[in-house]
Amino acid sequence: xxxxxxxxxxxxxxxxxxxxxxxxxxxxxxxxxxxxxxxxxxxxxxxxxxxxxxxxxxxxxxxxxxxxxxxxxxxxxxxxxxxxxxxxxxxxxxxxxxxxxxxxxxxxxxxxxxxxxxxxxxxxxxxxxxxxxxxxxxxxxxxxxxxxxxxxxxxxxxxxxxxxxxxxxxxxxxxxxxxxxxxxxxxxxxxxxxxxxxxxxxxxxxxxxxxxxxxxxxxxxxxxxxxxxxxxxxxxxxxxxxxxxxxxxxxxxxxxxxxxxxxxxxxxxxxxxxxxxxxxxxxxxxxxxxxxxxxxxxxxxxxxxxxxxxxxxxxxxxxxxxxxxxxxxxx
Length: 331
Ligand code: SF4
Fold this sequence. Notes:
This protein is of the alpha+beta class. It folds into two domains: 32-101, no CATH class; 151-329, no CATH class. The chain is built from 15 helices and six strands. The strands form two sheets. Strands 4-5-1-6 form a four-stranded mixed beta sheet, with no helix packed on it. The chain has a two-stranded antiparallel ribbon with strand order 2-3. It is globular. Residues 22-24, 27, 29-31, 102-103, 121-123 line the site of iron/sulfur cluster.
């Protein structure tokens, strides 16, 4: 029919996506500390027109396209209650793209758009683990421009998404034992718990190779190293490294599926499909073997959440680190 649109973009989201709302001052963390925030050009343009004392402060605190960080890497517009002063003075519409979107992410594969929430945010992690069923995804039509794909690329895209769908379905199939699901998706079995590494030390040495994102990670890594080395038995031998027991089977399948959702299909642009699959396994193993060491000192109900959050901050937000880890795991 004339005027009717023939093609729509498909928007896919994980089951907890729409529940997300930033908990702002109730957050034990804040995403306005510890990161350099790049300001998009449209926002920079609009900040250049804000009048009065606040406008002057805005401009004085922008250098080379990002906010000048204060000591301890605080955003200069984070007030003493950890609330955003740009939001308070100018409204939500004045936030730059990164602040408005964070911790959401988006990937586009031709006419398929996938949205999600980064696990650097404790509220996103809490919502991920709130689900009591294996992770599901919703899909609907949306009115966004698609990335053009030729027939060959579309075929490859469909093949990769089909493989990924098979992984999701297998991980979610509660009719087969969890261990069997892990074997089918990752070739993983408990006879080699640190696979694809031979030992906990080898697994941790990969973590040691990556540049730290900050003091919180330095402290977490030091706790992990101490646990591996510390003799805690009368015979002086190091304690056995095993699952610390914080993640239920459902937590584990949700986390593994989510990591595959976030990273696997990017093999269309970057290759390393095996490395991306194994990244999910590596992340889960580090999180469950070193949950307390990652989480540090926090109330019991936050241990699992904090462990995933700090590991995500360290691994998932730096392209170089993701590349290093995936290349190592791709072998
Ligand atoms: S980490 Fe999440 S909940 Fe906390 S301030 Fe950032 S977006 Fe909000």
